TrEMBL record:
GO terms for biological process: iron-sulfur cluster assembly. GO terms for molecular function: 4 iron, 4 sulfur cluster binding; ATP binding; ATP hydrolysis activity; ATP-dependent FeS chaperone activity; metal ion binding. Homodimer. Keywords: ATP-binding, Hydrolase, Iron, Iron-sulfur, Metal-binding, Nucleotide-binding. ATP binds at G125, K126, G127, G128, V129, G130, K131, S132. Residues 13-85 form the MIP18 family-like domain. Binds and transfers iron-sulfur (Fe-S) clusters to target apoproteins. Can hydrolyze ATP. Belongs to the Mrp/NBP35 ATP-binding proteins family. InterPro entries: FSCA_dom_sf, MIP18-like, Mrp/NBP35_ATP-bd, NUBPL-like, P-loop_NTPase, YlxH/NBP35. CDD domains: Mrp_NBP35 (cd02037). Transmembrane segments: none annotated. This is Iron-sulfur cluster carrier protein.
Length: 389
């Protein structure tokens, strides 16, 4: 088997085709990760490709093997292809994790103060207002716009993200892959997802209640942020539990640079508790950057709108959080009630991808575009002015 440096023209064409094969968990080309160890092409155009996997037999491994074969077969001048799969030795695995981390020892802490990742924590006052559905929708929408996105489901008591993103089926939740001490999160619709629901072992998350106390919760969130390898993310979203509990405070301590989005319903009575959850975030030094109203009016077949939960709650929360000290906290959007949006979540296929015309999905896409366009504040951004000549 020949390395890239000594490849013939036909072999080089195969290497180039393999550059397009991504590791489905790390989301980087397998050639860049050193997983392709050699390519041979015979004079009759038969290609053999050798790849090394961290572990054999897992779904990611099967996909890499299939994608490698398809890529080799598609290369110009190739009549047939086969793939030889090997498993890395412990030594090779160490070199691999080093390469993935880019020499992590020397790198700043993931999501530490020097990190360029924008961290957005989504909170709500009451439960059941659609916070998880919106967080998942925003994450998928941002990934679809080409951003590199991670999502931490920190809603320990009501983790629902794996279900909404199709990572949990028939009571089995997809598990992160462990490569030595590196934990690689599963990827759903381009989003790297980690959830407390993935760390329950064999327990069926449908019938498993997590009843951990503060310190245990804090350690778990800390582990999510430290040991799970997200790679270089543009945006990390966190789905917090509703209310003002231990997790919100831990996230405030661990990620003081986080922006906070508050989800509320149009019901004015829900506003007080939504404002309180935002104030807890402020107390831990986080910035509240916007409010999203969910479950706004439901469009009727005759075109009228039924305001099931009243109206005005989002605007009320936004205005109560805006003041001279903290500036304007905008209402980023009002997501209507929509049966299609709920069905997408239940089926594990986000409506923002599957039915972007759905009124709720369309509004989530619009909010995501606004969030993507806003960046992380002015620091490091180019301003739209040019010097006068
Ligand atoms: N705009 C909407 N239209 C219709 N159904 C919605 C909408 N938003 C959310 N839902 C549905 O409402 C239910 C609750 O949503 P979700 O689980 O996202 O709420 P939550 O605020 O995260 O709840 P908790 O924090 O208590 O777990 C889900 O069944 C979801 O599909």
């Amino acid at each position: 088997m020949r390395a890239r440096e000594s490849a013939s023209a036909e072999e080089l064409a195969v290497w180039r085709a393999l550059d397009r094969v991504q590791d489905p968990e790390i989301l980087r080309p397998i050639t860049e990760l050193g997983m392709v160890t050699g390519v041979d092409v015979t004079s009759s155009g038969e290609a053999s490709v050798s790849i090394l996997l961290t572990i054999a037999g897992c779904p990611a491994a099967r996909r890499i093997e299939a994608d490698t074969l398809a890529a080799a077969e598609s290369a110009p001048g190739i009549a047939a292809a086969r793939v030889d799969v090997g498993v890395m030795t412990p030594e090779q695995r160490r070199a691999f994790t080093e390469r993935v981390r880019g020499g992590a020892e020397a790198r700043p802490r993931q999501f530490g103060p020097d990190s360029l990742t924008r961290v957005i924590a989504v909170t709500s006052g009451k439960g059941g207002v659609g916070k998880s559905s919106l967080t998942a929708g925003l994450a998928v929408a941002l990934a679809a716009q080409g951003l590199s996105v991670g999502l931490v489901d920190a809603d320990v008591f009501g983790f629902s993200i794996p279900g909404i993103l199709g990572l949990s089926r028939d009571g089995r939740t997809e598990q992160p892959t462990r490569v030595d001490d590196m934990i690689l999160p599963p990827v759903a619709f381009g989003v790297k997802v980690v959830s407390i629901g993935m760390f329950l072992g064999e327990a069926d998350p449908r019938s498993t209640a997590v009843s951990w106390r503060g310190p245990m919760l804090h350690r778990t969130i800390e582990q999510f942020l430290r040991d799970v390898w997200f790679g270089d993310l543009d945006v990390l979203l966190l789905d917090l539990p509703p209310g003002t509990g231990d997790v919100a405070i831990s996230v405030g301590q661990l990620l003081p640079q986080a922006e906070v989005l508050v989800v509320t319903t149009p019901q004015e009575a829900a506003a007080d508790v939504a404002v309180r959850s935002a104030l807890v975030a402020r107390q831990t030094g986080q910035r509240v950057t916007g409010v999203i109203e969910n479950m706004s009016g439901l469009r009727q077949p005759d075109g009228s709108v039924l305001e099931l939960f009243g109206s005005g709650g989002g605007a009320l929360v936004a205005s109560r959080l805006s003041d001279e000290e903290h500036g304007d906290v905008p209402l980023l959007g009002s997501v209507p009630l929509s049966p299609g949006f709920r069905e997408g979540g239940d089926a594990g296929v986000p409506a923002v991808l599957d039915r972007p015309q759905d009124p709720a999905a369309a509004e989530v896409l619009r909010i995501a575009a606004g969030i993507a366009g806003r960046g992380r504040g002015l620091a490091g951004r180019r301003l739209g002015v040019s010097p006068r000549g």
